[in-house]
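From the thread on structure requests for the teaching lab: each student submitted one protein with a one-line request. Submission from student K.M.:

"Model Endonuclease III-like protein 1 from Bubo bubo, tokens only."
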Amino acid sequence: RRSIAIAYESGQGDGAEQGTSEPQRPHWEPRDWRQQLERIREMRRKRDAPVDEMGVEKCYDSSAPPQVMRYQVLLSLMLSSQTKDQVTSAAMLRLRQHGLTVDRILQMDDATLGQIIYPVGFWRNKVKYIKQTTAILKQKYGGDIPRTVEELVQLPGVGPKMAHLAMNIAWDSVSGIAVDTHVHRITNRLKWVKKETRYPEETRAALEDWLPRDLWREINWLLVGFGQQTCLPVNPRCNECLNQDICPAAKRR
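Reply posted by the TA:
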């Protein structure tokens, strides 16, 4: 099941025409969020987290034809699920050495594909998903990837986070905020959501409700690296964090 948040533009209809428009409710936004964001940008200034050196944007062949490049972006996203950037990057390098195109993957047997991508997380499932998705791309999209989130999430092994990142990286289009485990964890710790969220898609909808759209592209890259280096899942390095005095979750010693 997927929930789709629909935002309506404020129009001139109804009471506005009669001069009896209702007063607008104040727009909710988290306390101190702009200051927190600036400090996270400062902590990420060196761009030296694993995501910066081995993330999806570093995994594809930027000199490949656009259609091949987009396919490689999608595959690197599929491989990256439940997998460290270092492992994904190494698997993508091995795939590219074998020729990473739609036709080459379709010609490759499952055992060979498995040997190449191992040890990415859930590699057996990913072999199946990659083969199924690649066949669909060949049959339905002429070897390219879909241009919409709605079509991308219909592909086997492709979730909402991957779809939004694919739109951003492959199509240079901001369709929504890509929420992974780091973004989900950190935005809950910072109370950037009105109430605690349990699932990434819930977090995405909560963030898109208030975060200015011009920040949507940046927020994934920013928070993923911050989560890899400072705001760790277990034992976060609060004493090294510039936000320790204004973070609701900070462990103050």
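TA comment: The CA atoms of residues 12 and 19 lie 10 Å apart. The radius of gyration is 20 Å.
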